[in-house]
Amino acid sequence: PSSRKMNRRGRGGLPEKVKEALKGWRGSRQATQKREGDSAAQRCRRLWPSRVGVGRQEVACRCRISVLLSQSCLPCPQDFGEDDSLYITKVTTIHMGNYTCHASGYEQLFQTHVLQVNVPPVIRVYPETQAQEPGVAASLRCHAEGIPMPRITWLKNGMDVSTQMSKQLSLLANGSELHIGSVRYEDTGAYTCIAKNEVGVDEDISSLFIEDSARKTLANILWREEGLGVGNLFYVFSDDGIIILHPVDCEIQRHLKPTEKIFMSYEEICPQGEEGAPQPCQWASAVNVRHRYIYVAQPALSRVLVVDVQAQKVLQSIGVDPLPAKLSYDKSHDQVWVLSWGNVHKSQPSLQVITEASTGQGQHLIRTPFAGMDDFFIPPTNLIINHIRFGFIFNKSDPAVHKVDLETLMLLKTIGLQRHGCLPQAMAHSHLGGYFFIQCRQDSPSVAPAPQLLIDSVTDAVVGPNGHVTGAPHTSPDGRFVVSAAATSPQLHVQEITLRGQIQTLYDLKVGRGISDVAFQRSSTQGNQYYVYASLQAEPDLLFLELSTGKTGLLRGLKEPPGPRRIVRDSGLFGQYLLTPARESLFLINGRQNALRCEVAAVKGGTTVVWVGEV
């Protein structure tokens, strides 16, 4: 803050008698725990042993040091009080980490406050309702997040199921899955998942009905329609229109041909060439909007199509700037961001925003004032963080990222990266500690890749390099793991962010030529753990990695990729299937078994894929 003088390093050092008194002293450390939403006041008290002959000095520097304690002080995130206390009015998970203060002119006299932010549990169960016939297996799943990690228990009709464990009834993955090997009529009931930690509790119910197929009750009919209806499907945008794929049956449920009409305009989904000559559809990017609609870009036609998931039809087209290339959904403000190149040389990029995206119609198209950008990043939401205020735009040839208010669409500030010589190529974010990870450009294959940079989201300051880690960063859905890899590098880096907001490198792997794409799959054997599936650059194989152990394997023979970059798409929080395309087919992977599920033939160019979960 301007009212406080920052440390003047040139001022005289400590007197010899003080240095002698400080021998063996490494500063004081104090840990503080706060519940999310509370206020926090951290006071910089007397910082040194009483034997040190230095009177109380002005507290000159309060630092937020996120990772590298050797880095210089970052600006203060909030305000000082008159008693040299740092006040944070409403703590969130981005505030967790280390805060350090010291006496003005005496850096050796310091105190570190470690702030841990505890978060009450938030859970989701799946399915909410299911109906099964006697003799088949049934699973009820519960995913919980919170800090500290919640403990999960199950009740059946109010009774603790842990007292009823048997060969037929078992708890898997630290209690996150309740499995019944062969259901009987008496297994019908309301199963309550309860997640509890030191600061709160959350619960939800998953209902199970056991009935003969001949006795179809309303619950039975609803569950079957839900399971085989318009939800839990992959939408694949291919050369030959839109393929709607059911992963359990490995069947194409519906095929929207290029000649099918758009409901509101009666245009064709993919117009034919001159004299009716068939032309392959061209797609660029697609996003899921609240499992109600899919927005997909058609660059050659300068438009975005809106697909109605419930009706399984293309509802409308929205004209946008030429060559739309990237879409992203801002769930917090119900907006779809559209980046267009303007021309084949990418020399006239523009950003437009489609508002009220989840209404499906009556949307407005807003042109943003930003110029000269060629990429943008909007942090994802998760169970704990359900509102995002800021995004970033950047130019991959300019050493800076620009912070944007997602509500007003106004530029807030520019964060310069010149000091580190970083030209940003990709970004990722974790709410644990509030880190932004930035991939920096590698100038040539012969030059060692530049390390990632870290930005602190509380202060908007560049912390410095992320150790030796290079490549594009990918964060797990819960923000705990960061996997970094690049198409041009044989290295894959795995890091974990602790519940105190500290980044730890778990291990590095050599993966051959490089990585094209990464997807996270929840572990079926360990609670709150993940597998990573990664497509190998220009190779017909898929790498799978168990994050907790570093064990790897390969799924081989997935045929020739459709292009230099092969995508991998997961199937959501409770999904067990992943999809990756080949040149003329699609491969479905069973993530619970780390095995190939099936190949769906005769699908060309399926390089744009969206998963639609529960509707």
UniProtKB/TrEMBL annotation:
SUPFAM superfamilies: 3-carboxy-cis,cis-mucoante lactonizing enzyme, Immunoglobulin. Residues 14-23 have a biased composition (Basic and acidic residues). InterPro entries: Cell_Adh-Cytoskel_Orgn (IPR050958), Ig-like_dom (IPR007110), Ig-like_dom_sf (IPR036179), Ig-like_fold (IPR013783), Ig_sub (IPR003599), Ig_sub2 (IPR003598), WD40/YVTN_repeat-like_dom_sf (IPR015943). Residues 1-40 are annotated as: Disordered. Residues 121-206 form the Ig-like domain. Residues 1-11 have a biased composition (Basic residues). Pfam families: Ig_3. PANTHER family: CONTACTIN 5, MAM DOMAIN CONTAINING GLYCOSYLPHOSPHATIDYLINOSITOL ANCHOR 1. This is Ig-like domain-containing protein. It comes from Sus scrofa (Pig).
